[in-house]
Amino acid sequence: MTQDFPRILVVTGNNFNLVTGGGITLTNLFRGWPADRLANVHDDATPVDRTVCRNFYRLTEQEIRWVWPFSLLRRSYGRFKDHSVGGPQSTGARGPSAGESAIETAKRVIGDSVPKRACLTKDLTAWVEDFRPTLLYGFLGSLEQVDLTRQLAKRYAIPLVVHMMDDWPAVLHTGGLLGPVVGPLLRHELKATLRQATGRFAICEQMCEEYHQRYGYSFLPFQNALDVERWLPDSRTEWKAGSPFVLRYVGSIVPDGQRESLRDIARAVARLAADGLDVQLRIHSPRHESAYLHALASPAVRIEGPPDPTSIARLLAGTDLLVLPYNFDARSARYIRLSLPTKAPAYMISGTPILVYAPGDVATARYATKEGWGHVVATRGEEPVMSAIRTLMQNATLREQLGRRAREVAVARHDATVVKAAFWAALCDASRQGGA
User: Fold this and answer.
1) Structural domain of residue 166, as residue ranges?
2) Are 365 and 344 within one domain?
3) Is residue 286 exposed (0-12), middle (13-18) or buried (19+ Cβ within 10 Å)?
4) What pLDDT digit, counting tens, does each position of 292-342 carry?
5) What is the distance between the alpha carbons of residues 81 and 61, in angstroms, rounded to a whole number?
6) Do 240 and 375 reside in the same domain of the chain?
7) Whole-model pTM?
């Protein structure tokens, strides 16, 4: 019954939307929750989706403030999002180039370590008090988000649930001039937040296992959930190769996620096409994120905008091979090693074979190998990617085997009916624990 559902204040960097990974995961996990018992305070320019949550508060510079003296540089420094793990980084001993401004030098030297703090303004507190939350739920991802979450939980004396999506504590504020100061501060406050929480969630089982060892608390795994009955009608039923043979990437391109590995795949496809193979890569990402690939654009490498969310199931199923890349550099590997991308369950249920190009110890690669739902290339380089693409183009039996197995795993492990029931039960339990 409705009275059994806590009134949840969702505190996230992203909002409820159908575009970004975090927004899609949030929307799918809460779909069906009474809308009048959800409110979202966020820092996201993405247009909101109001089918699940209708009450939003977007944070401003009044709530998220730079710590003095960096606040003095705020206007000229630009909107430098240090909560994005893919932000500017220190480049070590390299000196300033000719004509480099003081602000540019500061950005390069300080790296991602500009500290921010949260402020509970009158507008924000009035909005929260009007909603009357009984449970606080947060996707954490930055010092200011941790700070805001702790302040809200303390001020309103409500139980707290923390949900971790990526291993940002392992990489954020580790470089730059202030890293040695801000990094330990962030990790100290995160540990305090986890200690305060009555519910602790992570994106996959591997993250839960490592976080239990790292922080000393048990975590429950919850990731993107699919409406299986809606997705299955569009799933593949035959695996004949198309002409051209189309590879497809759908989703965001994050510097510390898949940026360089996606470039490797684009170059591999371009080389295969130059060798005479009828193959094509189509990339569906926000244009500002895919701009770095424009030099590779050609008939074989097509760069397009994000797909229409209403046609995504047909788009994925109407592809010969889906690509799921992860970067191989040390920083990226630390960041994404414990993650499972939002797109993975959607890729899987489409029945289209999946090429996973990633370090072998990344959670997604391990999951694909263990369950047999993806063809994993764990060695970096265009040649290994080209070899894998040739194999998959020529072997219809392998494509069918991968596609069928991926769909089976998606139905068994990512069915929203099952995932949401467990997620909602965990939220209600955390709310009761906090009220005990």
Assistant:
1) 2-62+115-225+415-435
2) yes
3) middle
4) 999 999 999 999 988 888 899 999 999 999 999 999 998 888 888 998 999
5) 12
6) yes
7) 0.85
